[in-house]
Amino acid sequence: MTARMAERDYYKVLGVPRDADRKAIKDAYHRLAMQWHPDRNSSPEAEGRFKEIAKAYAVLSDPKKRASYDAHGFEGVAHFSPDELYRGVDLGSLFGDLGFGFGPGGQSIFDRFFGGPRAPGRGADLQVRLDVPLERIATGGKETVHVSRPVACGKCHGHGTRSGQPPPVCEACGGTGHKVVTRQADGKDHREIHFQQILRCTKCDGAGTIIDKSCTKCGGTGQVEKVETLKVKIPAGIEDGMVLRVAGHGLPGAAGEAPGDLHVAVFTSPDARFQRRDADLWRGITIDVADAVLGTQVQVPTLSGEVEVKVPAGTQPNEVLRLRGQGLPRLGTADRGDLKLRVQVHVPTEPSADERNLYERLQGLRRRT
Ligand SMILES: [Zn+2]
Ligand SMILES: [Zn+2]
Asked: Of the bound ligands, which one is closest to the alpha carbon of residue 48?
């Protein structure tokens, strides 16, 4: 009996006929992926549907895997590891088209939804992204991560059936999902040749079992998404794209196996006040022409509150004022980066009559010197 009892036929998943060409398969996938992507679709079954669609596409878009599936059903592709199934499949560019992904340094969509390659003897690793505000990066400390993972459906005990009992074995194939038929043909000298052909069981569509009525909670997949809330420790000064590993919080392994790990990819949350560049923070300030000439004081925010900053006389446009040690800690050191203020000088475009008068006097003075 196959372990993938409740899996739906890949052609049905994509809603294409069995003789669909590659373009029709790709178009169907693209349309359904847009519809069911969990970033766009908030219904609880979205992630399950999305994975189902991606898997169907991974098989049917590859001529070899498709042929194997056509001939032997789910068993024809059961020996592929997730890695073999998805790597090399053109999922990436489609996700690019859809505008999803984590950007440079981030985890790919593939890793997010399908986990890393499965290490032997344990469950697959799971990846999530965590955006951390600057204040937390400055001090270090705990942040909350929400991880959604498939678990066996409690209502049907993972069987996918409405009764909650294991689905009955298909009588037509005895649970194998295929039928072996012996055919005859005429060989040389009119001797009969017998050969065997393996056909997918049409009664159960290769599943080996028949679910008459599927579970109302999981829709027959036997799995539901469960959101787990975890605290992870953020080291002060963690850099963009660094990955924290939380052992044992990945996907469950097969019976008797250890679960995989959770990988948390950390990114700096966008901040309206500062831009992060490594351990330094940057901010623009704008001062008046007269202030640039004569010097002034300005109030600027820092991660530890507002401070007064002296702008010296004669400050030039684009000059950078440095507040030493007001940046972020450098990971693993006692060092801190700086807060850097890039000075813009505001040149009035509509000076008042009085201002204009003064500027004209200034102009006259500077010509004489
Ligand atoms: Zn059958
Ligand atoms: Zn269920």
From this structure: 2
Helix (H) / strand (E) containing 179: strand 178-186
Question: Per the confidence metrics, is the pTM higher than 0.85?
Answer: no
- Residue 58's SS3 state is helix
Residues 47-103: pLDDT tens digits?
778 888 888 888 898 888 888 888 888 888 877 776 667 655 555 444 443 433 333
138 Cα: distance to centroid of ligand 2 (angstroms): 45
Q: Report the DSSP beta bridge partners of residue 199.
A: 179
Ligand nearest to the CA of 213: 2
Domains of the chain (ranges, CATH numbers): 1-100 (1.10.287.110), 275-368 (2.60.260.20)
**Ligand 2 centroid vs 290 CA: distance in angstroms?**
73
Question: Residues within 5 Å of ion ligand 1 by Cβ?
Answer: 170, 172-173, 201, 203-204
Please choose, from the candidates 291, 295, 292, 275, the residue with its C-alpha nearest in 3D space to the C-alpha of residue 283: 275
Interval between CA 24 and ligand 2 midpoint (Å): 32
- For tokens 């037509």, the residue is 172
Determine the 3-state secondary structure of 192 from DSSP. Answer: strand
